[in-house]
Design a protein that fits this description.
With 140 residues, this protein is α+β, with helices and mostly antiparallel strands. It folds into 3 domains: 39 residues, no CATH class; 49 residues, no CATH class; 41 residues, no CATH class. The chain is built from 5 helices and 5 strands. It has a 3-stranded antiparallel β-sheet, with no helix packed on it. Strands 4-5 form a two-stranded antiparallel ribbon. β2 and β3 form a beta hairpin. It is elongated, with a radius of gyration of 23 Å. The termini are far apart. The N terminus and C terminus are likely disordered.
Length: 140
């Protein structure tokens, strides 16, 4: 296991030095960021750019998950999330609400269009699933 050189106080702010020291002490060196002598510590992001704690700007060619489709800090998504946080930020699964019902409808219709199978959605902490509709179980 090889450690990188922790920058000195004249090179960076004290907070930044503390972040590198936390990495040096607590992060697994099997983590993919450690192929570099001094891993990038991100401070902010926007669109396809990441800004590190030194103010350097990088074009992120490794974008993960939804950021590769929508970019970081996508204004439309942030506004939708903010609206939802002000309306129903978190609610027990014991309650129904409009957004939950509309999302279930959209998922089941998409599955039906692709498979010809009717189903139902169960939302939970581990994700959502759609069960095959059994006529005897789901008759109105």
């Amino acid at each position: 296991m090889t450690s990188f050189r922790v920058p000195q106080s004249g090179e960076l702010g004290l907070k930044n030095i503390a972040l590198y020291r936390l990495d040096d002490k607590y992060m697994s060196w099997g983590d993919t960021v450690h192929y570099q002598a001094r891993p990038i510590v991100a401070d902010s992001c926007l669109g396809d750019r990441v800004i590190d704690i030194h103010g350097n700007i990088y074009i992120d060619s490794q974008m993960w998950h939804s950021s590769c489709n929508f970019g970081y800090r996508n204004r439309e998504i942030e506004q939708a999330v903010e609206r939802q946080l002000h309306k129903l930020p978190q609610i027990s699964g014991d309650y129904l609400h409009e957004e939950k019902l509309l999302q279930a409808e959209e998922i089941c219709q998409a599955i039906y269009q692709r498979t010809g199978l009717h189903g139902r959605v169960g939302f939970n902490v581990g994700g959502g699933g759609c069960a095959k509709n059994r006529a005897q179980e789901y008759r109105a």
